Amino acid sequence: MPPDAARRSDRSRRAILVAAMELVEALGYSKLTIEAVAARAGVGKQTIYRWWPSKGPLLFDAFVELGPVGPDVLPSGDLATDLKRELRVAVAELAERRFDQVCRVLVHEARTDLVTLLLMPRRVELEERLLAAQRSGEVRVDVDVSAAAELLLGPVYQRWLLRTAPLTGDFVDAVVDLVLRALRG
Question: Do you know which InterPro entries this protein is assigned to (predicted)?
Answer without folding.
Answer: Homeodomain-like_sf, HTH-type_TetR-like_transc_reg, HTH_TetR, Tet_transcr_reg_TetR-rel_C_sf, TetR_C
